[in-house]
Amino acid sequence: MVRFKFFLAFLALLICVGGIAGAYFYWKKFAEPEIGVVKQIDGTAEFLKEKPDLGKRHFDEAVELLKEGELVSARDRLRYLMTYFPESGTFDEARRVVGEINLDLLVSNIPLPKKTIYKVSRGDALVTIARRTETTIDYIMRANGKTTALIYPDEELVVYPLDFRVEIDLEKELVIVFDDDRFFKEYRIIDTNLPPGVKAPTSTTVQEKVAWFGDQPLNFADANYLNCSKWMRTGKIGLFIREGKGDGEESDSNSYGVMVAKADMEELFTILRTGAKVSLVK
Questions:
Q1: Under a CB-based contact definition with an 8 Å cutoff, are residues 272 and 162 in contact?
Q2: Between β-strands 164-169 and 277-281, what pairing exists: parallel, antiparallel or unpaired?
Q3: What is d(CA 280, CA 78) in angstroms, rounded to the nearest whole number?
Q4: pLDDT for 141-174, tens place per residue?
Q5: Are the C-beta atoms of residues 136 and 130 closer than 8 Å to each other?
Q6: Tell me, what's the pLDDT at 136?
Q7: Phi, psi at residue 209, to the nearest 5°?
Q8: In the list 53, 181, 206, 249, which could disulfide-bond 245, CB 3.0-4.6 Å?
Q9: 3-state per-residue secondary structure call for the chain
């Protein structure tokens, strides 16, 4: 009887050992590899949750076109990116580059559909040429590399009819220039000082463009014109676009308007004509 009990105990031990061995075999053969696969799939799933940046390819292609000097093709590729991939991480940089390309194309000798050559006649002056060709004096000077207002009979000048409009976005702190409804370029607002009566939304036009040197107004024929300060007055009282102070400098609290950097004001003065539409939005 004792031997029989011993035999049963031994048999139970064998069964227990066999069960443990079988469980270990199953773990190594099936369970552990399956868990590894699941973990790998989960990791892939986490990766797939991050959407690929579909716009980056177009941005990279535009950069290569820029390196080759293909400004128009590069701009068109970036415009495509801006239209169809606004969620791209390259969108803001694409928008900045498009603005730079647009201005470069405008003031260079690179042909554009509306860019023409004006041949100076005897008796012509920059102010009459600008009015006749619907452009600005500053554009003619900049596009033709002039540092003075002197022109000569039979001189050929690059001219371009400027019909831009401006959107002042107070929330984004940007002055955005459009050519019809197409984005042209944007400029950062560095300070804003508007009277209580000027609130968005409102629409007006550029009424006056003024150049100052010291505390005196001057015109484009003055020797100090290229180094002067400039501002634009709109039809809305207190809404000016003007040159702001640099970093660390305090703006004049008595100067109403939206302020941009000096270089940006020079560009806006170049491309905006009196009568250009201005919208204040928020």
A1: yes
A2: parallel
A3: 27
A4: 999 999 888 999 999 999 999 999 999 999 999 9
A5: yes
A6: 96
A7: -120, 125
A8: 249
A9: CHHHHHHHHHHHHHHHHHHHHHHHHHHHHHHHHHHHHHHHHHHHHHHHHCCCCCCHHHHHHHHHHHHCCCHHHHHHHHHHHHHHCCCCCCHHHHHHHHHHHHHHHHHCCCCCCCCEEEECCCCCCHHHHHHHCCCCHHHHHHHCCCCCCCCCCCCEEEECCCCEEEEEECCCCEEEEEECCEEEEEEEEEEEECCCCCCCCEEEEEEEEEEEECCEEECCCCCCHHHCEEEEEECCCCCEEEECCCCCCCCCCCCCEEEECHHHHHHHHHHCCCCCEEEEEC
Domain ranges of the chain: 56-107, 116-159, 164-281
pLDDT in tens, 33-56: 555 544 555 555 454 456 799 999
Dig out the tokens for 213 from the structure. 């040197």
What is the CATH architecture assignment of 164-281?
Beta Barrel (2.40)
Token pair in block for residue 132:
């006749």
161 prior amide bond cis, ω within 30: no
Answer yes or no: CATH 3.10.350.10 is held by domain 116-159. Answer: yes
Q: What is the pLDDT of residue 250?
A: 54
Place of tokens 């100076």: 120
Stronger pLDDT, 214 or 230, i.e. the higher one: 230
Tokens of 64: 């290569």
Same fold, 116-159 and 164-281: no
Query: Residue 111 carries which side chain, given as an amino acid letter?
Result: P
Distance of CA 62 to the CA centre of its chain: 15
Tell me the two tokens of residue 134. 């619907």
